[in-house]
Structure formats: structure tokens, C-alpha cells
Design goal:
two-stranded antiparallel ribbon, mainly alpha, 3 helices, 58% helix
């Protein structure tokens, strides 16, 4: 017998709605931006009464953190938290 799948099998995977993917990406970005921004602001003394104000190195660190968040969660952990909650993965 061969290991090839049979021709009469039907895939039960339904395509995921585009709006759910977009909402998950927006919520992921907002989550990592504010959580990371506050954490970096706290550690660098850049917190203000209105939130955080990152400039220079801390702002670059936040950008790197955002990119790393999406890469690590998507590639190594099977999807970001919002992708998992909205079942887009």
C-alpha cells in the first residue's frame, strides 16, 4: 500500500474569516505595545502621569520586543494568545 492519501477524502478544515485574523493582529499589537511599553517605561524611568514616553534606545527596544513577540509566538508557540482565543490558528 502507498502512503498517499485517498482521493475521496474531504478536508474538514474550514477557512478562517479574514476579520478574525485582522482583529487578532490588532489586539496582539495593542497588548504587546502597552504591556511592553509600560514594562520598559518602568525599567527605564520613562513613565509619565499619562502613561509612558519612550525615546531613543527604549523606543527601539519596544520595537524589537513587538517583532520578537510576533515571531516567537507565531513560529515556535503555535500562534499568539489572541490568535488562539479567536481560533485563527
Amino acid at each position: 500500500m502507498s502512503d498517499a492519501p485517498e482521493a475521496n477524502t474531504v478536508s474538514t478544515d474550514k477557512p478562517v474569516s479574514t476579520w478574525r485574523k485582522v482583529v487578532a493582529a490588532i489586539l496582539d499589537f495593542i497588548t504587546v505595545f502597552f504591556a511592553g511599553g509600560y514594562a520598559i517605561g518602568y525599567l527605564t524611568g520613562s513613565l509619565t502621569p499619562d502613561g509612558f514616553a519612550l525615546e531613543g534606545g527604549p523606543a527601539l527596544l519596544l520595537f524589537v520586543l513587538i517583532v520578537a513577540y510576533f515571531v516567537v509566538f507565531s513560529k515556535y508557540l503555535g500562534g499568539t494568545p489572541w490568535q488562539r482565543m479567536l481560533k485563527t490558528r
